Amino acid sequence: MDRSGTVVRIGRKVATVLIPPGPHGEPESLFRCALGGRLFGSRDRRPPGTAAVVGDEVLVEEIEPGGRQPSRPGRPGGRITAVLPRKNALRRAVGPPERREMRVFAANLDRCYIVSAFAEPPYRTGFLDRSLVVAYDAGVTPVLVFNKLDLAAGSDLAGLDRDLAPYRALALEVHRTSTRSGAGLDAFRASVAGSRAVLFGHSGVGKTELLAALGVPGRRSGGLDRRGRGRHTTTAAELIRLPGGGEIVDTPGIRALGLDGLTEARIRDAHPDLAVYAEDCRFPDCSHRTEPDCAVQAAVAAGKADPARYETLNRLAGEAAGLTEAADSTPGGPAGETPDQPPPASPE
């Protein structure tokens, strides 16, 4: 009989599934499940949405010892037979520009902690805008974390307040933290406890140190490379149970965040501070650029909606509609990059 469990890690060839205690006294256990067959076949032949990701609830068929299974001594092996319906799923564009696709990397989340740093590397509002679109499009609550507060000067703090002003209508939860001084960590721990969340951000912003502050041992920081970008130390997404309650998905650091695959309409919907006015537009498919009687443009003109957010919406929706120049000719590099993001690198 199949048993249900949660995918806690996806490796190159093996998925690790946490099976809860059974009704007849069976202990909690980890099953190593080979990635192959119908659910994990080649990407070209795989039915959409059938590949399991971290956070998925799945059904697992246990395989008898001695069979073809990826078991280890003391750890049972199995085969994932079904991925159960998801509450939500986070997606991001991966692959080279000519073959980019939106791929799910975590599922069934409550919150998305978008982690940036005051310095080494400094935060970029372009990345923040794109991360918010990813979170809102998935139906996951975004939370902003600005780490390395110990490196921030007074002018940096004032600059952050100015940079966050356009997002005021979103009523975002914001944390300013330092893993060196301990500033803001108590509030951050309290925020994470009791939910399933994901840490999402560039390499080098301090996600590893934040995990250690949450009580997760054995993590190694990669620091920065010679170009001032973070080095990857997390190579696969992993669902971690926190000592203080709750779960966190640790993901590899991001160098470039493309929105390839998102339609113009989905990007408009992922700006809820502006979408609230769109209900009063004359046309239901209003692009908010040239149509008459556009309620979003009227809200901006009346000072009800922030003009910087309106510009961001036009820029990102314009990319989806093909109204902007090709990404390769944009300062900053590959598809999905903008001039105010860190220099590009090869996809992880």
Folded structure, characterized:
The protein has 348 residues and is an alpha/beta fold. Helix content is 22%, strand content 22%. It is built from eight helices and 13 strands. It has helices at residues 125-138, 154-164, 185-192, 207-213, 264-269, 272-278, 295-301, 307-321; strands spanning 3-10, 14-19, 29-34, 57-62, 77-83, 89-94, 101-107, 111-117, 141-147, 173-176, 196-201, 238-241, 247-250. The strands form three sheets. The protein has a six-stranded mixed sheet. Strands 1-2-3-5-4 form a five-stranded mixed beta barrel. Strand 8 (111-117), helix 1 and strand 9 (141-147) form a beta-alpha-beta unit. The protein is globular. The two termini are 38 Å apart. Residues 66-71, 221-234 and 324-348 have low confidence and may be disordered.
Briefly characterize the structure.
The protein is α/β, with parallel strands linked by helices and 348 residues long. Helix content is 22%, strand content 22%. The protein contains eight helices and 13 strands.
Provide a count of the helices: 8
**Helical percentage:** 10-25%
> Structural class of the helices, strands and pairings?
alpha/beta
Mean pLDDT: 82
* SSE arrangement, N to C: EEEEEEEEHEHEHEHEEHHHH
Outline: globular
Radius of gyration: 21 Å
β-strand percent reads 15-25%
Our measurement of the CA-to-CA distance between the termini, rounded to an integer number of angstroms, reads: 38 Å
* Low-pLDDT segments, ≥5 res: 66-71, 221-234, 324-348
| Overall number of strands | 13
Widest sheet: strand order? 10-9-8-11-13-12
Biggest sheet details: 6 strands, mixed
